[in-house]
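User: Hey, my collaborator sent me this sequence without any context and asked if I could get a structure. I don't really work with proteins. Can you help?
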Amino acid sequence: MSMPRRGKPDKNAPALHVFGATFDDEAMFDGFTIPRAIIAGWHHGDERWGDGQFIRYVIDRADYR
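Assistant: No problem. I've predicted the 3D structure and written it out in structure-token form, which is a compact way to encode the shape of the chain:
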């Protein structure tokens, strides 16, 4: 998933840049299937994607209340 987002990923003036996320693996919790591993950040889809990533998490448990 990717979208334009206003920000300063290159420390320049704020502007629209590509921000995106990948959703990998699946896990089922209480009958709901959700993505288990998420990585997000700037430059999604180009050669700078590795440097732009700053959100990484894995879901091990989900409680629905």
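In plain terms: The helical segments are 49-52. You can pass these tokens on to your collaborator as they are.
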